[in-house]
Amino acid sequence: MKISQRLQHINHMVQGHYDHIWDCCCDHGLLGMMLLKRNTANQVHFVDCVAPLMLQLTQDLQRFFPKQAFSTGHSVAQNTLGISQWQVHCLNAADLPIEQTDITNTHLIIIAGVGGKLLIELVQALISRHGSRQIEFILCPVHHNYYVRHSLAKLGFFIQAETLLEENRRFYEVLHVTLERPCHGHPVTLTGSLMWEDLDKKDLDLAKRYLSQVIAHYQRMPSDLQVPYIIHAYQSQLAQISNAF
Hints:
Elements: H1 5-13, E1 18-24, H2 30-38, E2 41-48, H3 51-64, E3 69-71, E4 85-90, E5 106-112, H4 116-130, E6 134-140, H5 145-155, E7 158-167, E8 170-178, E9 186-187, H6 201-220, H7 228-243
Parallel strand pairs: 1-2, 1-5, 2-4, 3-4, 5-6
Antiparallel strand pairs: 6-8, 7-8, 7-9
Helix pairs in contact: 1-2, 4-5, 6-7
Pfam families: Methyltransf_18 (PF12847)
Protein name: SAM-dependent methyltransferase
């Protein structure tokens, strides 16, 4: 199956090594399989609430990664093999069994393929239950990016990395965030920060088209629903990157 640009971007954004990576991407396990091959975590967890899909995924994993299987149950234990193991969980992403892991373990939770409002609901549920754990998120909403950023900022998240991409004539923002301030990190901003730095000509054109599209979207809304401060925020961001060149 062809790997989308979106999944490739997320895969490349995973730079460190974690005790647990939770793939909640609704992508038939493609991202998690790439992470398994790269040995990016002691355990890679595949999460979805659709039982037939997870049964098929379990069969695929048993076929392609037979020596790396841990369990298909819900209990989570330490990996002693020295290579990434996989585990399948048929449950809602808000119910990740992080409490079954060691308190010192590091976690990366990847959520993509859902709308911004549901994405934030999942993040809020997870940090309300596991806020004291060492958890990072990579998030890629399919829309409502301003709402996502505003919500993350209110929750106190810091940005580690962010990128903009276009696929099948749609734009996506990918955010790597954490509640612990990174060495060179700063709070999540409402219209982006790191992804507008050091743009080459191709990336600048992409950024301009994206920001122009977002501005036009908000301007097309009925006058009683328009939010002038959001329009102004994106117009200011567009002017800033345009004046930098």
